[in-house]
TrEMBL record:
SUPFAM superfamilies: PLP-dependent transferases. CDD domains: CGS_like. This is Cystathionine gamma-synthase. GO terms for cellular component: cytoplasm. The gene is metB. Pfam families: Cys_Met_Meta_PP. Gene3D superfamilies: Aspartate Aminotransferase, domain 1, Type I PLP-dependent aspartate aminotransferase-like (Major domain). It comes from Corynebacterium deserti GIMN1.010. The keyword Amino-acid biosynthesis applies. The modification N6-(pyridoxal phosphate)lysine is found at K204. Its EC number is 2.5.1.48. Signal peptide: none annotated. It comes from the Bacteria. Keywords: Amino-acid biosynthesis, Methionine biosynthesis, Pyridoxal phosphate, Transferase.
Amino acid sequence: MSFDPHTQGFSTASIHAGYEPDDYYGSINMPIYASTTFAQNAPNDLRRGFEYTRVGNPTIVSLEKAVAALEGAEYGRAFSSGMAATDILFRVLLKPGDHIVLGNDAYGGTYRLIDTVFTAWGITYTVVDTSVVDEVKNAIQDNTKLIWVETPTNPALGITDIEAVAKLTEGTSAKLVVDNTFASPYLQQPLALGAHAVLHSTTKYIGGHSDVVGGLVVTNDQALDEELLFMQGGVGPIPSVFDAYLTARGLKTLAVRMDRHCDNAEKVAEFLDSRDEVSAVLYPGLKNHPGHEIAAKQMKRFGGMISVRFAGGEEAAKKFCTSTKLICLAESLGGVESLLEHPATMTHQSAAGSQLEVPRDLVRISIGIEDVEDLLADVEQALNQL
């Protein structure tokens, strides 16, 4: 059987895409090119296209190519954080007087950036439930340039039909951008469903080990990519080469990690759903989730994130957060270790009083890859304290 690098499987691509051992030393892994600048053969005669790390570095480019390959994209650009990637995307796609359609369960940092920075720049926005396609349709205006979708959403795990929303942009100047952080490229590929660009906080599942911060944007739109490239070098929000290396190393095991995240999350969600202390389990893998059928259609599996609402309200939610012993109370998600947090007072505090305010009885849990028996025992003993 012959090997075709263009049709290789996901795990194969996550290990091999973006780099081949060079002729010099034959390093199996992409080297960390810790150099700010690169020698030139003659004035403006570059060696393999590299001149200065802010505008291009082999280690960073390798990561960009690898993530793009996994998303089925032609182009990828890496940034110093997910929020840096978000900011650059906004600045490329928006001009004063433009309008955004934003989900009512968007990440708090995204909402804060729009509401405090871009509104001062003359940008307006409309908040809708993006899981209801008609709400998105009715919110689109003549000056709408961006529809921003998270699916699953953070933290309520809402599901949006990417293909249906993408069709709404036909014949308009609006671009659909999907924040694919919660799903990762392994579980969902929005470009194939009609999205114009996909954003990742690579800090989360792609890096996977809670030791590196980064962001990445992929697209098949050459003109958009050229603008992203210009802003990447002109503004300079690039990742360090060390961070790019760590992120690429994490990417190699994304598939096997995501399967374990999903295995564990399915069992923990079912257990939580059986408990009287819990008023609702928000997990798209449960058949009673309103987005279950759409998630099953557009995702490979249902992910490692679970949100829980407690019958005892905010007091019970906070008590649960401080009662787990294995699952650590901390912000962030997508690492090998399980984490939980109280979004209303932590990651989404900036959304208080807005249309994106998070219920105070809700706890978000990032299920790690520990032995599921230990996770279930920890959740049980914490619930027993309520």
